Every structure is written in structure tokens, then in C-alpha cells.
Amino acid sequence: MDTDELIKALVSNLQPVTPLSAVWRRAAALAIVATAAIFFGTLGLRSDIAAAAETLRFLFKLAVAVALTASAFGLVRVISRPGEPWWKAAFYLAVSPALLAVAVVVEISVLPPEMWSASMIGMNSLICVISILLLGIVPLAIFLVALRHGASTRPAAAGAAAGLLAGGIAATFFALQCTNDSPLFVATWYTLAIAGLAAIGAACAKAMVWW
């Protein structure tokens, strides 16, 4: 076999490489579809969803979750590439907690102190945490697989970002079922569940380096 034939044989065996941006778009779409299927197959919408959709607190809860999802998606796409200035994308992660912090301040300023605890604890707080964790496991697994297509130099941080993204998606869907719309409740229990997914993502991504 001469050189030209060898080159043609090698080229014919090459597989097309999917751009990393396309990998993340597909992963996000698959994660959303999978989470939606799990959500509607198990929890479903809250019974008063039509009335809730007309209230500011419910819409704000959704906005906070969507803001986290969007900012985490931007971060994980950047941090999955080596040498990218990820700190610029990380700046946008502050949007969601900042919005929530403002809402908490407003709520405690209008509620009497004796009602703060009840608003924070709400109803079924443990179910909230467990539901978000369970809804987020499948999308987190999808994003961890997507991370393997990149070459992040910060695997733990990339895994944590993937966990935040999975948590944002899970929280967005769970917000459609959760009847606790208090910013104090969201800031406590939603945050706890999402932080758990971020920790799981960081640990798993770090372990993947050794696979």
C-alpha cells in the first residue's frame, strides 16, 4: 500500500466529531424531556395551577429557577472546555440568588417576625428536598456524560456546574407542583436540594477523571 492509499484508508475510517456546543444543546434538550416525563408521570401539576399562575410569588419562584438554569447552562458549557475564561460565565450565577435574596428581604419586611419560621418551614419541606434531588438525578447523569466529551481542567467545578444545571431544571418543574410559594421556603429548601445535586456532581465528575 502506497502513501496515498494509506491516507485514503485512514480518512475513510475517521468518524465525524460532534462540536461540544451541539453536545450540550442535545444534552440539555434530552435532560428537559426526561425530567418532564418523570415529573408528569409521578408528581404532575398542582391542582390550583391556573390560579397560582396569576400570583406574583408563584411566577417569581419560576423566574428564579429558570434564571439559575440559564446561568448554569452557560457556565457548564464554558467550563467544560480547557482554557476558557469560565469566571465571566460564573458571574451570571449571582442573578438567581440575588433575585431570591431581594424577595426574602421584602417578605420579612412585610411579615411579622412570628410568621417567619412558619413561612420558611412551610408544608412538606422534606418532600420538596427529596423531589428535587430525585428529579435532578437523571439530568445530572446526562450532563456528566456530556462532560466527558470536553476536556475540563477543573472537573470538580464542572461537575458542580452540571449539578446546578440539573438542579435548576428539577426546581423549575417541581415549582409547578409545589404549593409553597414563599421566598423564605424557596431560599431554604430549594437551595438545599440544589446544593446537594451540585455536591453530587462535583464528586462524580472528580471520580470520572480516574475512569
What does this structure look like?
With 211 residues, the protein is mainly α. The chain has one domain (23-208). It has helices at 3-12, 20-42, 49-52, 56-79, 86-91, 95-110, 116-121, 125-147, 155-175, 183-208. The protein is globular, with a radius of gyration of 20 Å.
Biggest beta sheet summary? none
How much helical structure, as a percent, in the residues? over 70%
State the helix count. 10
First-residue to last-residue Cα separation? 37 Å
- What Rg, in angstroms, do the CA atoms define? 20 Å
Envelope shape? globular
Task: State which percent range the strand residues make up.
Answer: under 5%
Q: What is the count of distinct domains? A: 1
Q: Can you give the mean pLDDT?
A: 89
Given helix and strand content, the structural type is mainly alpha
Along the chain, the helix and strand elements come as HHHHHHHHHH
Low-pLDDT runs: 9-16
Total strands: the figure is 0
